[in-house]
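Researcher: Here's the sequence for the chain we discussed earlier.
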Amino acid sequence: MNSVKKNSEIILASEEEFAYAVAKGVLEPPKLSIWMILIPIIIVFFMYRHQKYVDGRKSFVKNFLVSRKLAIDAAVDAIQSGQKANVARAVGKANVPEDTRKDYAAWIRLLIEHYEHLLRGKSDAYDAMIKSAYKTRSNYLQYLSRLNNAEKQFNAVLKPHLHTTAKDVDEIIVRMESWSDKIRRAEAQRVFS
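Model: Thanks. This is the structure I predict for it:
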């Protein structure tokens, strides 16, 4: 069986796959048409837009993983020390507005609990960790429902802070929440099939 550290790397890799799947649903790549191929200057413009899309997706994933990495690290620390996870320390490391910290902490707490369950499981593979931790699809779906609700609550209190830095925030958040839920349900179906 893997060490806690190795299993945390497996969990992080799975979270990264999840982040790329959400990014694929949220960010729209530029479309290539036959005219772009026939006119060289237009293909250059398309390649520029495509590179911006690729860079945007990488940035999305990097930012998407920040909180999850904090939660994974807190879960690893808790298991290795035999102590209760320090949610306040994880929240303190995050760069979130002060008035959103309560809802952020609730979301992070759920993530930490989830990661602790997975890390305590008796497996070396991500899907098997989920099976070991949650036993049934119903139990896992209950956790996912709680997670989705906590994310939505945090997004709701964070949204006013985002309107000043990004356009179409409402649409982006709705798409992120929708894709996250869709991908998680598919994962639950796959793992417990």
